[in-house]
Amino acid sequence: MDGRRHGRDLREFARGGAIGLISSIVAAASGFLLTIVVARTLGAAEAGVFFVVVALFTIVAEIAELGADTGLVRTAARLRALGRGDELRRLMAVAHLPVVVVGVLCSVATYVAAPWIADRFADPAQADTAVTLLRIAAPFLGLMALTRVALGGTRGLGSVTAYSLINNVLLPGARPLLVGLVFVFGVGTVGVMVAWTAPVAASFIAAVVVLWRMVPRAARESGQGDVTVADSASQRSAGREFWAFSGARGVAAAVEIALVWANVPLVAMLVSSEEAGVYATANRFVSTGTLVLQAARIAIAPQVAAMLARNERGRAGHLNSLATRWVVLASWPIYLVLACFGPFLLVLFGEEFTGGAVALAVLAGSMLLALSAGNVQTVLLMGGKSFWSLANKSVALTVNIALTFLLVPPFGISGAAAAWAVAMLIDTVAAALQVRYLLGLRLDVRRVAVSGLWALVWFGVTGVGLRALFGTSALVFAVYIAVACSGYAATLWRLRHSLGGAEFLGAVRNRGAGEKSARQGESA
Predict the structure, then answer these.
(1) Which of 69, 249, 436, 482 has minimal CB crowding within 10 Å?
(2) Burial class (CB in 10 A: 0-12, 13-18, 19+), 479
(3) Among 382, 399, 521, 503, which Cα is nearest to 447's?
(4) Where does the pLDDT of residue 16 fall: very low under 50, low under 70, confident under 90, or very high at 90 and above?
(5) Which pairs count as long-range contacts for 103-107, CB under 8 Å and 24+ apart, including other chains?
(6) What's the mean pLDDT when you consider all of the chain?
(7) Are 287 and 363 in contact (CB under 8 A)?
(8) Comparing 74-83, 197-206, 260-269, 324-333, which segment has the lowest mean pLDDT?
C-alpha cells in the first residue's frame, strides 16, 4: 500500500509539475519580454512610473483577494479528501461574495485617490502620467482579485491545467503582444497601460466559466453529488473556519506582495522614477527565475492539503523534499547566471539599465538561499497556519521598510536590494523552522545540498572564472552558457538515479498507465 501511495503521489506531482512548469516558462518568458518592450518603448523614467503603478496595482489587488484564493485551494482540497463534496457550492459563494464587495471599493478608492498617490510616488514631472495610469488600471482591480480567487477554486478542485492556462499563459502571454502593438503604432505610456490591463477581463471571464463548470462535477466525483445540503450549523461553522484561515492569509498575502513590490515605489519616493525603473527591471529578472518554484507550488499545494487533512505527515514531507530538490536543480542555475553576468543581461533593456547589476547580483544571491527551502510557505499554509505566515511576513516587511529607508539614501538601489534580501531570508528561515519543528515535516537536507552543489560548480565557479578572466561580452557569455549547460546536463544524467530523476521522468511518461493500475488496485 505504501509503495502504491508513493507512486500515486509521484505521478500526481509529476503531472501537475510538468503542466505547471511548461505554463510557468511561458509566463516567465512573457514577463521578461514585456519588461524588454516596456523598457525599450518608454525609457527608464516613464518605465519607472509604469512599474510603480503596476506595483501598487498588484499590492491592492492582492489585498482585495482577502486570502480567499489560498483559502479555496486548501478548503476545497480538504472537502474533497474528506468526502464533503455537498459543501463545495456554498463554499464558492462564501469565498467570492466578500471579494466582490471589497474589489469594487478598492477600484473606486484607487480612482478617486489617484492624484494623492501620484504626488507621493512619482516625480513632479511624471505626476500627471501617473494619475492617468492609475485611473486606467483602477476598474480592473476588482476583476483581478476575483480572477485569482476563481483560479484558486479550480486548483482546490484538482485542475492544475485550468489555473496554468489562464493565469500563466492567457494573462501574461497576451500582455507583451498587445504592448508590442502599442510600440508599433506609437501610442505611448497610456497605450502600454491599456494593453497591460485589458487581458485581465478575458482572464476573469475564462476563470469564472471554468470554475462554474467544475463545481458540480467535483461534488459528484467526491461521492456527494446527490446530497442537497449539510445542516445549517455545520455550514456556518465551515464558513467561519474558511474565513478564519483566509482572513489571516489575506493580510499575510498583502504583506507578502508588499514585500515583493514595495521597494519599487519606495525607491521612486527616496531617489527618482528613473532609478525605480532600473530597480524594477532587475527585480523582474528575479521574478522570472521563480518559474520552477511556482510550478511545484501549483502541483503540490492541493496534494499537501489533502495529506495533512488525513494526518499523513510522512507522505507530505516526502513529497515536499522531492519537490524541493527539483526546485533547486532547475532554479539555482538561473540565479547563478543572473549573479555572474548581470551587466551583460541588463544591456538587453538599454544602456541606462546597466546600473542595476549590483542590485541584481544581491537579489539573485538571496534567492539561492530562499529556494533551498523549497515551497515551505505553501506547506505552512496548507497546514492551516495562516497566522504563523502572517507573523513571519509582518516581521519581514517591517525589516525591509526600515532597512530600505536606512540603506537607499547612501547606497541607492543596491541598498534596496540588500534590504529586500535580508527580509526575504528572515521570512524563509522562520517558515522553514515552523514546518520542521511545529508541523513535523522533515526536509531531506543532504540531497537538497547535493543538488545545489553541482549547480554551484558548473554555473557559479565557471561563471566567476570566465568573467574574471575575459569580462562579460556576448562571446564570453555564449561560451559560459555552452560549457555550464553541457557540463551540468552530463552530471545530472550520470546522477539521475541518486537524484530521483529517472523515477520522476518515468512518472511523467507513464502517468496514464500508472493511474489506471492504481485505480485497478484500489478497486480490487
Answers:
(1) 482
(2) middle
(3) 503
(4) low
(5) 103/64, 103/141, 103/142, 103/143, 103/145, 103/146, 104/142, 106/60, 106/61, 106/63, 106/64, 106/141, 106/142, 106/145, 107/138, 107/139, 107/140, 107/141, 107/142
(6) 82
(7) no
(8) 74-83
